[in-house]
Write a structure and sequence with these properties.
2 copies of one chain form a homodimer. Chain A is of the alpha/beta class. In chain A, the strands form 2 sheets. Chain A has a 5-stranded parallel sheet, with helices on both faces. A 5-stranded parallel sheet of chain A has the order 7-8-6-9-10, sandwiched between helices. At the A-B interface, helix 1, helix 2, strand 2, helix 11 and helix 12 of A face helix 1, helix 2, strand 2, helix 11 and helix 12 of B.
Chain lengths: ~500, ~500
């Protein structure tokens, strides 16, 4: 059954009917918006449709019925260079609404399927993967409490032609009809099939499509308003039920990567000094190669307190060009970050092609500190393994090389370093009460680390255990891992 | 006396001397950074210099001596489209460090004077104005407590040639030397004069230049570190003294714009309906003209509680294309905003050329609510009049049309509207305890409004009083003001 053809395009509404409908409606919309605001529910409304179907007008109608303090319109244009050199979804992840607010998209991530050159990756990404990415994106938002409403404004080929001609006749609007519009118009039937496929592949319970007959704008307006009211109501109800859902069941963790780590590994100072110079020089060379080839590199450093993450990173970037890398320290989220999906603050920091981003702590906080300290609910951190894998796969699809280091020490070594910090005035600031408290939770943290390593060790984003009881060994291991993988990657591409 | 030629380029440091210097230094830098962090002082470090003078290496040396959690490097490249279509300073205002953090710029706002096509405006902006903008920018940051340290890395023409040749010989680095670099090299003497002018015009007590002899990188490194330590120390001391400064004296307010407002002005419903349609249609046309001509429009709505700002804006945008305008409601600042200069959150919202930004409340909060409620100190809000005028002048220089509406009602009318809101269930959410509290401060608010109107009514950004006891009259006045000014502006350009 065709979603497009099922729609009766002849439906109409008179001016009087529309005015009466709208008068009753405006108060309704305001109430709904305030209700969503109070419940902290973000709302995403997508407008897609044929050229000249009336997206602009309908968006403005909707906008005017809403409190402008809670809503933002995003127009999706051809990617600018900042967008072009990042994963396609970057520009949408960075624009998701915060809790209790609303975002309206005039064209959206669906442009990747129906607008030429909107996503440079589409030439080599299997179309199934492209749909998977979009479905995952919507599912992740929905799981976080977002309401997603998607409109496709439908008009016939004949009606489109009539509207283009009318726009062309008026000198004020003639510029809006381009050659590309006419080209697409001529291929209406082909696009019809493409759109059908898109609608059916991305029509889900958490983000359903609504095809709106749009030849009569008043009817379309009414349909849009009614759908918004109905969908927000329906989904708010679903949210309440979802809160009562039982805990997710994940398959058991069947092996420990930490158990197998040999923390006695060490390197002498002489050997370290000799190797360090070679690998730092090589990294500097590879950094430039990465830049010239427009690859990206994402590195994640996770590890125990005092395991030596900071020092390890410092040696890694010692000879690198600061224009090519950035160290991104991750602390507790600020209030803007807390008001968004937890992955938002990492998406906003995804590096441009050609650059290295080194995360000192990362999104894995969701399944470590947030899990152990109870900042994330059980189902939230359990869900996070899959969400993180999906995000990393999107990066990998884009040609990002991902390194994830677990910087490992044992309890004894940590105690020694804590005491050393307390004794050394220049290091005293590095040790806090919180470090001692975390240390007491070593056993639950270790369990969480093992589960994280097990569930998120993927072919496209594998973990490397960096044995760090001996810091010199740890630094060389990280450096060598990066150099070898980069060399391999640069040769095979 | 030439700032460049005064420098002895032959100065050197041996490897052993450098290592000894650096060992003593690293702890020092960390302490300084933590001290600035605790005091909430932002630090801005600018690196300018000849091509191949070693900016990258020196920045990395500095970076490695710092805690990466507190510092961010910004490379200034040719403007991307987002930057190209906004005032030149936009890309730097949006990147200022927050309190207690550090930003390092690899090339900076000085590129506008020494790098071709970095600022599209420079072709028609008088050079004095361009320098004024930059000096105001630095003075505003400094007044807000920022420490600004500016380096110019100096090498001779001969040394530059040697370095370019060396880079070209190595296949890994040959791509870094471009034709443009050689072109600039050949014009070394011309650039020498340009740089001299730039240094002398922008060397100030609040943001002094430091010319670093950079032919020996170890000597340059030492000089950079010593300067940073000395300058941070010096300026932190100055900050403490500045806190004891007496209150600023401003010239007296010699007239009241509010007194002259005739709040009895009114319009009948019939007249309103007739005019509204004409002007809304005209605005829609002008919106497209603004878009095609790549102008920008900034509108500020300020006014008493319940004066009808929201409703006025709604009617203004009723027929406009949502892709061309944005309504930006300004509420109390969030924590990220509080951690920055108060103008930062407005700079980040400056519209792209071709677009309208309508601010529902604005930067004028600094001299209204922040003044009255004591959120800003006396010298802070007194300083703000000039800062705001300077910001608006930068926008105007760029070709932005600025409208500022004071939506005015009297106390009696406000009381009537408050009571009406309390009686109407659908409007009840619009009235809070805070509105009643603000009302009690009518007299001090009125004084602040009058002072604001008097001090910030400029030729490039004039205020319009919108008499709003009668809402219909107020809506038409705003619409007509915009339409007339746009028509005039579009014709004269």
């Amino acid at each position: 059954m065709s979603l497009l053809d099922a729609v009766d395009l002849a439906q109409k509404l008179s001016k009087d009917e529309y005015v009466a409908f709208m008068d009753a409606l405006e108060i309704n919309m305001g109430q709904l918006q305030r209700q969503a605001h109070e419940m902290g529910v973000p709302i995403t409304i997508v407008f897609e449709g044929w050229g000249a179907a009336g997206k602009g007008r309908l968006i403005n109608e909707l906008l005017l019925a809403l409190d402008p303090r809670g809503v933002k319109v995003h127009s999706t244009l051809a990617p600018n260079p900042e967008e072009f050199h990042r994963p396609f979804l970057w520009r949408f992840w960075t624009k998701i609404p915060e809790k209790g607010r609303m975002a309206i998209y005039d064209r959206s991530w669906y442009s990747r399927f129906i607008v030429e050159k909107m996503d440079p990756l589409m030439e080599r990404l299997p179309v199934k993967k492209a749909y998977d990415e979009v479905n995952c994106f919507e599912r992740q938002l929905s799981d976080d409490g977002h309401i997603i409403i998607k409109f496709f404004l439908h008009i016939s080929r004949k009606e489109q032609k009539k509207r283009f001609k009318k726009l062309e006749k008026n000198p004020m609007t003639a510029w809006r009809v381009t050659d590309y519009d006419w080209k697409k118009h001529k291929q209406y039937d082909t696009y019809h099939d493409t759109i059908e496929e898109m609608l059916s592949r991305t029509d889900s319970d958490y983000a359903p499509w609504h095809v709106i007959p749009s030849e009569n704008w008043r009817f379309a307006g009414m349909a849009v308003f009614e759908t918004v009211i109905h969908e927000v109501g329906r989904q708010l109800k679903k949210r309440k039920e979802a809160q009562k859902a039982p805990a997710m069941q994940l398959p058991p963790v069947s092996k420990s990567m930490l158990d197998r780590a040999d923390l006695s590994k060490a390197l002498t100072r002489e050997e370290y000094d000799r190797q360090r110079k070679i690998y730092q020089q090589r990294l500097w060379e590879l950094e430039h190669e990465v830049y010239l080839r427009r690859l990206s590199v994402v590195m994640v450093y996770e590890g125990w307190d005092a395991a030596g993450k900071g020092g390890n990173i410092k040696r890694l970037v010692r000879r690198m060009d600061p224009r090519g890398y950035e160290v991104i320290p991750i602390a507790a989220p600020n209030d803007a970050e807390l008001a968004h999906h937890y992955l938002w603050r990492f998406w906003t920091k995804i590096p441009k092609a050609g650059h290295f981003a080194i995360f000192d702590r990362s999104w894995y906080g969701r399944v470590l500190v947030e899990r152990i300290e109870g900042f994330a609910k059980e189902n939230e951190w359990k869900r996070a393994y899959q969400e993180i894998n999906e995000m990393e796969e999107v990066l990998a699809n884009q040609g990002t090389l991902i390194f994830k280091f677990w910087v490992d020490i044992d309890q004894e070594e940590q105690l020694k370093r804590f005491k050393d910090r307390e004794k050394t005035p220049a290091k005293l600031w590095k040790i806090t009460e919180e470090d001692w408290r975390n240390r007491e939770k070593w056993v639950p943290y270790r369990e969480a680390v093992d589960e994280m390593l097990y569930r998120t060790h993927t072919p496209y984003a594998p973990w490397t255990i960096v044995e760090s009881n001996n810091k010199l060994y740890a630094r060389m291991k990280a450096m060598k891992t990066v150099v070898k993988a980069l060399e391999k990657h640069l040769i095979t591409r």
